[in-house]
């Protein structure tokens, strides 16, 4: 069930409640306005809390569902509706895909992994780690080679994370790299791809560092998060520890513009040290 359906159901329930109120209200007090706004607020709903201020402070610094109160053995209706909306948003982030309008606006070449469907992408990890034949051929014929940095944008597990963050992050990153006189290949978008597909792109382009900006697995706290994975000169013996990752990029974590500037500095340092992942960490 997607978020639009959930919100529609919530508004229908609110309308039913309002209609009951109107029927029971005095004639002179009845209203005709049927517009509703559903607003999520961090409100402490613990009945008879011993120290409400402490709970309020805790709620202000975490997206976790604390201080929501309960009715008997279950959460209160407002918190249950919030939960369903967040759950629907997380599902949408995974399944709806990045829109064609967004890709056209960003002017990114679109490639495709071997995953022909989202079901295959979720069930067969390897299908997202390689380009399909058509995309591989296009990359070999069109992408610049021997550049210092190659940028990949991937929907991963959060199309929402891509659409929310890339418009601010990508320009900041590219501007930062150009300001440092670091050469760049053409930024590409790869549908239904996983982090390891960057190894194949690196082999095709012979770049020094490849960085993937990929949608993070969504949770109930946020469905808009992005991660950046980068690796220096990957090869056949590359392991996960060779990759450096910066995660939690979104408006409630690392702001996308700030992340773009930081990643430019990080890439400059990785190029200087000719190492990423654990090897890079040991040098620091």
UniProtKB/TrEMBL annotation:
<comment type="similarity">
    <text>Belongs to the EutC family.</text>
</comment>
<comment type="pathway">
    <text>Amine and polyamine degradation; ethanolamine degradation.</text>
</comment>
<dbReference type="GO" id="GO:0031419">
    <property type="term" value="F:cobalamin binding"/>
</dbReference>
<dbReference type="GO" id="GO:0008851">
    <property type="term" value="F:ethanolamine ammonia-lyase activity"/>
</dbReference>
<dbReference type="GO" id="GO:0009350">
    <property type="term" value="C:ethanolamine ammonia-lyase complex"/>
</dbReference>
<keyword id="KW-0170">Cobalt</keyword>
<dbReference type="GO" id="GO:0031471">
    <property type="term" value="C:ethanolamine degradation polyhedral organelle"/>
</dbReference>
<keyword id="KW-1283">Bacterial microcompartment</keyword>
<keyword id="KW-0846">Cobalamin</keyword>
<dbReference type="InterPro" id="IPR042255">
    <property type="entry name" value="EutC_N"/>
</dbReference>
<keyword id="KW-0456">Lyase</keyword>
<dbReference type="InterPro" id="IPR009246">
    <property type="entry name" value="EutC"/>
</dbReference>
<comment type="subunit">
    <text>The basic unit is a heterodimer which dimerizes to form tetramers. The heterotetramers trimerize; 6 large subunits form a core ring with 6 small subunits projecting outwards.</text>
</comment>
<protein>
    <recommendedName>
        <fullName>Ethanolamine ammonia-lyase small subunit</fullName>
        <ecNumber>4.3.1.7</ecNumber>
    </recommendedName>
</protein>
<dbReference type="Pfam" id="PF05985">
    <property type="entry name" value="EutC"/>
</dbReference>
<feature type="binding site">
    <location>
        <position position="195"/>
    </location>
    <ligand>
        <name>adenosylcob(III)alamin</name>
    </ligand>
</feature>
<comment type="function">
    <text>Catalyzes the deamination of various vicinal amino-alcohols to oxo compounds. Allows this organism to utilize ethanolamine as the sole source of nitrogen and carbon in the presence of external vitamin B12.</text>
</comment>
<feature type="binding site">
    <location>
        <position position="216"/>
    </location>
    <ligand>
        <name>adenosylcob(III)alamin</name>
    </ligand>
</feature>
<dbReference type="InterPro" id="IPR042251">
    <property type="entry name" value="EutC_C"/>
</dbReference>
<dbReference type="GO" id="GO:0006520">
    <property type="term" value="P:amino acid metabolic process"/>
</dbReference>
<dbReference type="GO" id="GO:0046336">
    <property type="term" value="P:ethanolamine catabolic process"/>
</dbReference>
